[in-house]
Design a protein that fits this description.
Blueprint lengths: L1 H4 L2 H32 L2 H22 L11
Length: about 70
């Protein structure tokens, strides 16, 4: 999708932002999940982390259209 949404001149920055946000998300998940696991059991933490993600996935599926393929290629 990044290749279809961004031209070649801006594609490197978009991919870099994607990789940086993945690392940030992993770090946030480790810190927040670790804190939650001290408050609840690990099973509750998995449910607390998973249920909002399912709703977010449904919202993204409905609200974000699929970009047409090959628009940024010559």
């Amino acid at each position: 999708m990044i290749a279809d949404l961004y031209p070649l001149s801006r594609r490197g920055g978009a991919i870099g932002l994607l990789n940086a946000s993945a690392s940030f998300g992993i770090g946030f998940g480790l810190v927040f999940g670790g804190w939650l696991s001290t408050q609840f059991s690990w099973r509750v933490v998995f449910v607390l982390a998973g249920v909002p993600c399912l709703f977010l996935a449904l919202i993204i599926r409905v609200a974000v259209p699929e970009p047409p393929r090959g628009l940024s290629e010559p």
